[in-house]
Write the structure tokens for this entry.
Amino acid sequence: MNRRAFLKVSTTAGFVCACPPGFLAATKDSPSSGDILADATKRIEQHRMGEALIAVRDTQGRPVPGAKVAITQLKHDFLFGCNLFMFNRCGTSELETAYRSRFAALFNYATLGFYWASYERQRGKPNYDYTDQVLEWTSRQGIVCKGHPLVWDHPASSPLWLPDDHQEIAVLSNSRTREIVRRFQGRIDMWDVVNEPTHLPEKHNKTRMADWGAALGPVPYVAEPLRIARESNRTAMLLVNDYRLQPAYYKILDSLREEGSLLFDAVGLQSHMHDGPWSPERTWEICQRYANLGLPLHFSETTILSGPRKGPREDWGQSTPEGEANQADKTAAFYTVLFSHPAVQAITWWDFSDHGAWQRAPAGWLRRDMSPKPVYERLRELIKRHWWTRKETTADQRGEVRQRCFYGRYHLTADLPGANRISREVTVARDSDNRFELA
């Protein structure tokens, strides 16, 4: 299959993760700046929903007019996620239980950490046991997982034990990518293969990985691990990820081609908003720009804060009621714009709780005690109620029900005369006839 029309089906969670064919044509009709939020509901109905036809039949295959039909959504095909870095690290059993239960109640997607420096503190001893524990839990919850990152020049992913020799670093890094992708195939089939390659030309990070990457140049540095990851898992979804969303990043991505085809399957776009939320106009413009690559867009690291910055670097104030209200409003608007854009396939929040959050910032949807902030309730209302299909209705004279549904996994039931009930699980998918029979 051409990776521009990449289709990835997760058998454990029932998701269909695909970039809509022809979505580029849809993005050409850009709304005016004042209409981006105002018209989002129409775009969501157009791009995130399809009509399902449910035919109820008796044992002889005859229509059953008047049958009571219930349509209950189980999962979104859109990936609503968060990093899961605090799994088994919350401090107490009470905090851990609250963290896990609230995560599973809202998200269908999780990012797991593979930062080389902490993941393999001793050379040759990667912490696979921890990842196995996390995957055992996410599998039970039906949560799709992505690994992040395999290659990064930051100190977090440049172990102190790395040698100075560039050739040896290449062997070690390539072997790590190959081993990890193969080991977790079937459990993790989505990877941020390379993180933040735009840093390389200026040697922003003073590490051995950065020295090696700068010597190679951004495109060769990114291309080789993508090839290795592809060889190691032919069906995996591979991403490149960056927060610098200027032309330099687009140029790197557009150069990652072999025989005209891109070497990756989706574009990772970070959206940390520590210095203030993006406007709908800026969000839409970024979507439009990167949609031109013809691949799904993953907003891979999203942060909007609920407390003030007090000083430079990691100097943050605590979450405040006013900040929490603003965080809820701005996050709901941001998610609405992204969910309404046909190229966007996934959104990942960064981090779920203020406890253990990056830069010690008040970034979470939960406070340090794991109590939910307003943003958690607001997004649960959107994801699990407003953008969710649940319908009880009656079959017409042909024994049929037609219903527009959000794309995803469903449980269908029909109550027939004589107290007989029939049910089945189905997937309402984009570009499918979505005709289902309850017989």
